[in-house]
Amino acid sequence: MIGFLGIDVGSVSTNLVYINEDGKVRESIYLRTNGRPIAALQRGLQEMTELLPPKTVIRGVGATGSGRHLAGIIAGADVVKNEITSHAVAASRVVPGVRTVLEIGGQDSKIIILRDGIVADFAMNTVCAAGTGSFLDQQAARLNIPIEKFGDLSLKSSSPVRIAGRCAVFAESDMIHKQQMGYDMPDILAGLCEALVRNYLNNVGKGKDISGTVVFQGGVAANQGMKAAFERALNIEVIIPPHFGVMGAVGASMLARDHVARGVPTRFKGFGAAESDFRAGSFECDGCPNMCEVVEIRKDGSVIARWGDRCGKWSTRMDRRKISS
Amino acid sequence: MKVTFPHMGNLWICLNAMLQYLGVETVVPPPSTKKTLSLGSKHSPEFSCMPFKLNLGNFMEASELGADTIIMAGGCGPCRFGYYAQVEHEILCDLGYNYKLVVLEPPEKHISQLLSRIKYITGNRSWFEVIRGIRFGFAKSRAVDDLEIMAMKLRPREKSPGHTDTALTEALKLIAETRRPEHLQESQNNSAEIMKSIPTESRQVLKVGLVGEIYTLLEPFANMDIERKLGRLGVEVDRSIYLSQWVNDHLFMGLVKGLRSSSLYQRCSAPYLRHFVGGHGQETLGGAVYYNNAGFDGVIQILPFTCMPEIVAQSVLPSFSQDTGMPVMTLIVDEQSGEAGLMTRLEAFVDLLAENRDRKKELA
Predict the structure, then answer these.
(1) What was the pLDDT predicted at A324?
(2) What ranges in chain B are assigned the alpha helix state H?
(3) Mean pLDDT over residues B47-61, rounded?
């Protein structure tokens, strides 16, 4: 069997998918990054070998997410792509005709506007993370509700409570206040979803032309309450694609498939990367008062990559990205 | 008297030339770095903008090198910048610094007002000399701009990444070290030679216009080297504000003809914003329209967090984008900005522009 690997190393989760030659998702893995991206990636590769039949050939690898450069170096990726493009590619192939992608992940949220299958506009949260998965996660933990049940519980609400959603801290105090007033739990949860949707649309979605078909993806799309809140706010049906939680990795794998279709060999280093000893270290450069923290990746003791310096003194020279003409 | 001034890109090269020519002792603050920003942020009001914080940091660092007098531009109008010189001076006084302050306000009526403020610094030198000094500074600003424009064209085409920036540093050094006006032409020729010697290859490049607030446009530390980053991604950059143009518009009241000027942008902005909104808000829209007419692929607006004039411009830009189909992205910077987030946005924006262009070609 021949296929392609997509890797998305994000702040909260590390996802891997395997797609076959037709671009169908065959296997997907969702792991918590837990602040240790290398270990998470190696565990992911290990789990993937166990899932795939023995004679599988990986023909191409794509990496994305905030840890895409790290993942690209460790696994040997053919394509290293930013998460906005990856999410857009995945959405437009999985749901043809999509015009708006709402994506809410662990620590960031973005909106992507597509027209005729290509990205026309996008935005990412800048100064606020109130509407992201981490916040929902925390609130669920505080209320002692498993995050998986959050959505279903909020759907039981008949009249959502209005909660201040401008800031995560104030939203929390407002929620506590509403609890003490004696409001029902489902109403509070539904109110929280509405507050987050309001915050998202006013910040990330400000000035964007949101029109159907709308796709909602990212880890938070698991929350049915959020879907319902979006539908109420936009008055448009919101589609959640089957692999909503790993769409970044799906996009990366599809980009890898496009890339090697031109006949280039893959740079995949093999699943053996799971066993090598990778270490990330950092040091502060004392060349100037910028004091950049330079990150260093070592494989079995020898340096294979460096980055994080402003001036380029330490970083390995990355290949100039050729813009296809 | 040891005179210092805030950094704003290569502004120091011009100011230093002018003052040294007139025999004024100067202290150039160390280049803006993370240290400058943390010093400045620590003592600034939280909601002042990043240029304010960097100015303050510059002055604190220059004081360590012996500076005792600050020259700073002023201004009037809805942007808070007009008060910065005075507020920064007050903060420095509170912190125990002993600085004298000279504010070069744009002349309200006549250029002689500016000259008299300069005279305060230059003492009893003849007017003739003072004017020659100013002209020398201005000539340097044009030389610096020429080099930067060359660099912006060369970066996406250079054979080995980083070559242009090494050459640019060397070329700028030649201009900065020129002490006499009569030697400037020679330095300009030599520095142009350095730039021309960069090996390039012909490539298809994308063109992006940078618009927005002047400080964040001109100071690479503030915009996290956006010109260089875009260059590496294969993008040729132009920006709506250059140093020489700003000096001409604001200090010489447009006396020098033949330069791109803010009046051009004000004309261009007419369909969207017909009123001065402070700072360079109107020029931001005008610049966007200008780049659309000039056949650019995209526009990026840069502003410091809490910049009011640019927030006004930002809220008008979507209608420009809708009318023209020109992709526009806004980047807001402050001391909390992360480099990874910027890179992600730039890469995605360049992907968008490349796809757009390919699509246009297919249709053609």
Answers:
(1) 33
(2) 11-21, 34-43, 50-64, 81-94, 111-122, 127-154, 163-177, 181-196, 214-218, 226-232, 243-250, 262-268, 281-293, 308-324, 339-363
(3) 94
The residue among A185, A216, A240 that closes a domain is A240
Q: Kindly state whether residues B70 and B166 are assigned to the same domain.
A: no
Say if residue B108 is in the same domain as residue B71.
Answer: yes
Which residue on chain A is closest to B314 by alpha carbon? A207
Contact A185, A87 (CB under 8 A): no
8 Å CB contact between B297 and B326 = no
Please indicate if any CB of chain B lies within 8 Å of the CB of A321: yes
Same domain, B223 and B178: no
Residue with the bigger pLDDT between B299 and B247: it is B299
Residue ending a domain, among B125, B148, B183, is B125
Report d(CA B222, CA A99) in Å as an integer.
35
Within 8 A of A204 by CB-CB distance, chain B residues are none
Give the per-residue pLDDT at B108: 67
Is some CB atom of chain A closer than 8 A to the CB atom of B202?
Answer: no
* Interchain pair B348, A322: CB under 8 A: no
Q: Which residues contact B188 (CB under 8 A, 6 or more apart)?
A: B143, B146, B175
- For residues B169-177, give the mean pLDDT: 94
Does B360 touch chain A if contact means CB atoms closer than 8 Å? no
Domain count, chain A: 3
The verdict on A80 and A121 lying in the same domain is no
> How many domains does the structure of chain B reveal?
3
Long-range contacts of B106-109 (CB under 8 A, 24+ apart): B106/B73, B106/B74, B106/B75, B106/B76, B106/B250, B106/B251, B106/B253, B107/B251, B107/B253, B108/B76
The region of weakest confidence among A285-289, A294-298, B177-181, B345-349 is A285-289
A181 with A226, same domain: the answer is yes
Residues B361 and B290 in one domain: yes
Yes or no: say if B295 and B317 are a contact pair by the CB < 8 Å rule: no
Q: Which domain holds residue A285?
A: 277-325
Place of tokens 């875009």: B230
Of B100, B125, B150, the residue at which a domain comes to its end is: B125
Residues B210 and B73 in one domain: no
pLDDT (tens digit, 9 = 90+) per residue, A109-160?
899 999 888 898 998 876 666 667 777 888 888 888 888 888 899 999 989 9
Residues B264 and B302 in one domain: yes
With tokens 């999985």, the residue in question is A94
Out of A201-205, A288-292, B90-94, B260-264, which region has the weakest mean confidence (pLDDT)?
A288-292
**What domain range includes position B94?**
2-125
- Is the domain of B191 the same as that of B211? no
Chain B residues with CB under 8 Å of A66 CB are 340, 344
